[in-house]
Design goal:
Strand content: 25-35%
Distance between the termini: 33 Å
CATH architecture: 3-Layer(aba) Sandwich
Shape: globular
Largest sheet: 9 strands, mixed
CATH class: Alpha Beta
Structural class: alpha+beta
CATH topology: Aminopeptidase
Number of domains: 1
Number of strands: 9
Length: 185
């Protein structure tokens, strides 16, 4: 049984269950949604990420979560917290937040609603001193949301990731401290 981590006006943020991989593959793994994330993944790759998230939640008390729309009960996204683990990143071990929203739910404010709940969780129960968010330089929607939330651009932490297509190799970072989050509220 999944744990409900947070609820917003329109979303339930709950832990991942093994059965979620097929649903994520079907609803969130589209070329448009995954365009700045290296492209659609194979089902076994999603299953592996879900297994890691389940293990992280069990051992660390945080992970990525499924976003369920209250009105329909449908999966509409994925968001959460992990530790920076890209071997090219200069800030290994920092708390990293991330998100993605199903294409037919874009431009409804779900990403902001979910990420605000994730930040409350990160700075509350998880007690992270700061969080970072990584994205492609071309993922304008993501970094605009980071700025809207009060995150600060950290050019000193940018890096090139050859595992992505050439246009998405520049990985940019934003950060926010617990004090910055509390002062922005």
């Amino acid at each position: 049984m999944a744990d409900i981590i947070a609820e917003t006006d329109r979303l339930i943020l709950r832990t991942i269950e093994e059965s979620d991989a097929a649903e994520q593959y079907r609803l969130l793994n589209t070329p448009a949604v995954m365009a700045r994330l290296g492209g659609p993944k194979e089902l076994h790759e999603i299953e592996a990420k879900h297994a890691k998230a389940i293990q992280w939640y069990a051992t660390r008390g945080f992970s990525f979560l499924m976003l369920v729309e209250k009105d329909t009960g449908e999966l509409v996204g994925h968001a959460g917290i992990k530790l920076v683990d890209n071997p090219l990143a200069k800030n290994q071990g920092d708390h990293e937040i991330g998100w993605l929203i199903r294409e037919d739910r874009w431009r409804r404010g779900y990403a902001e609603e979910a990420v605000r709940a994730i930040l409350d969780w990160a700075f509350g129960r998880v007690d992270a001193p700061q969080v970072v968010a990584l994205t492609s330089d071309l993922n304008v929607a993501s970094w605009k949301l980071m700025e809207k939330l009060g995150m600060v651009r950290r050019e000193d932490l940018d890096f090139e990731d050859p595992n992505f297509p050439p246009e998405d190799r520049k990985t940019i970072l934003y950060s926010m401290t617990k004090d910055q989050w509390e002062n922005a509220q």
